[in-house]
Amino acid sequence: MSAVRPGAQAAGRTDTGPLPLVLLHALPLDASMWDETARRLRARDHHVIALDQRGFGTMPLPDEPPSLDLVADDLARELDRRGIDSVALAGCSMGGYVALSFLRRHPGRVRALALLAARATADTPQAAGARLRFADLILDDSLRDRVVAETTPSLLGATTRAGRRRLLAEVTDVARAARPHSIAWAQRAIAARADATAVLHATDVPAVVVIGEEDELVTLAEARETSAALPRGRLVTLPEVGHLAPLEAPETTVEILTDLLTRAEKAGSAGVPAEGASAC
Predict the structure, then answer these.
(1) Burial annotation 18-27 (CB, 10 A radius, 16+ → b, else e)
(2) Distance of alpha carbon 147 from alpha carbon 122, whole angstroms
């Protein structure tokens, strides 16, 4: 997970300087989905690291069984390589599920958390089965284009689809360009993830849960449950936004993440414990 988008800072942080913010992307996109948000945050002198996850963007897909734990450990190794101890972590959809795995496997390294369009609970058997069927379909050369065309629009809200057709086309193009085996691997990894509610209960850091009012994949009720599981969680609902807030509402996403970083810095300067409890 060493690949970063142009403009990302290569220098690490140990005990001084701004708290690094790591941005984790959604499926089937890559770190470029954060480009506008990251640019605006860097203009405010925030230390932003947008990473491609394994199998997406510039990152290869290793020959290992699907598991989000592997992706979380990739992130830990990358932070170690940069000399970074702790971070603020923001994940959208699949990126949020990677963040949850990171919290469980690497407690104490997250000083602030943003979960966008991600639920704390595991998939139901029906939802997991649908993911596994999708993984099979995306590997079928005769069906792939139709599957992408039919499913990609649900990543964006109805308002976005109606008024920003160029964005819909861009997201669809990225989905078509994504490597099929990487998408299948990721879907199987997400389907196998564990319930993270107990992990969130133990994560006593400034946190925000973001949900678009037009999200067709994660419900407002699920977002409320996720926020309620966090001791210092806040819920933010975005009108006329679907599953991909960083693309549909980058300006608002910047304000949300800036507020989170401010809360984290204040908590640290006030001597409030900013790391999660032991792993659950």
Answers:
(1) ebbbbbbbbb
(2) 24
Contact criterion met (CB below 8 Å) for 9 and 47: yes
- Tokens 């564990």 belong to residue: 194
Angle, CA 71 vertex, CA 49 and CA 107 arms, to 5°: 80
Q: Which residues contact 146 (CB under 8 A, 6 or more apart)?
A: none
Amino acid residing at 206: P
Mean pLDDT by 10 residues, the chain (280 residues): 43 64 98 97 97 96 95 98 97 98 96 98 97 98 96 98 97 97 98 98 98 98 98 98 98 98 86 39
Q: What is the pLDDT of residue 4?
A: 43
Class of domain 21-121+194-269: alpha beta
189 near 278, Cβ under 8 Å? Answer: no
